[in-house]
């Protein structure tokens, strides 16, 4: 099993396979524009800019499950994140990342890398690092700033 078997929806509703990211290192993050950790968008973008030519792909999955901190609708998500945070990495359709309606991708991520308090995503900006073979190798807490992840990313590149 690997991450490549999953389909995800872009913010415009187009379905794509994560297999298109084969041979890349992925940093998958559940995001929210009104979260106290939203300043991490800038750090994620820095990683994206710095390492995209070496094969890093940052993928953002907005979720409104934590205190409704993602009020922006899918049609305006990419534009809002670009204007407010300078984001150029892909943002996908808003999804559930925990509970019975959790997207299959996030069910898989949390089964592969459990958190300190179990498998559920506990808050926005939980991050999952995936190697070039599609294996989920590490999970980072919401409070873990993107700069803290850089050495782990470099090791996989």
Characterize the structure shown.
Belongs to the glutathione peroxidase family. One of its GO terms (molecular function) is peroxidase activity. InterPro entries: Glutathione_peroxidase (IPR000889), GPX_AS (IPR029759), GPX_CS (IPR029760), Thioredoxin-like_sf (IPR036249), Thioredoxin_domain (IPR013766). The protein has a single domain, classed as Glutaredoxin (3-Layer(aba) Sandwich), CATH 3.40.30.10. Helix content is 28%, strand content 18%. The protein is built from 4 helices and 6 strands. It has helices at 40-51, 74-85, 104-112, 146-156, and strands at residues 7-9, 15-17, 25-31, 56-62, 127-130, 136-140. The longest helix has 12 residues, at 40-51. The mean pLDDT is 90.
Report the β-strand fraction as a percent range. Answer: 15-25%
Provide the helix percentage.
25-40%
Shape summary: globular
The CATH architecture classification is 3-Layer(aba) Sandwich
Keywords:
single chain; 157 residues; alpha+beta; Glutaredoxin; Glutathione peroxidase; peroxidase; Thioredoxin_domain
What topology does this entry show?
Elements: E1 7-9, E2 15-17, E3 25-31, H1 40-51, E4 56-62, H2 74-85, H3 104-112, E5 127-130, E6 136-140, H4 146-156
Parallel strand pairs: 3-4
Antiparallel strand pairs: 1-2, 3-5, 5-6
Helix pairs in contact: 1-4
Describe the structure in brief.
With 157 residues, this protein is an alpha+beta fold. The protein has helices at 40-51, 74-85, 104-112, 146-156, and strands at 7-9, 15-17, 25-31, 56-62, 127-130, 136-140. The protein has one domain (11-156): 3-Layer(aba) Sandwich (Glutaredoxin), CATH 3.40.30.10.
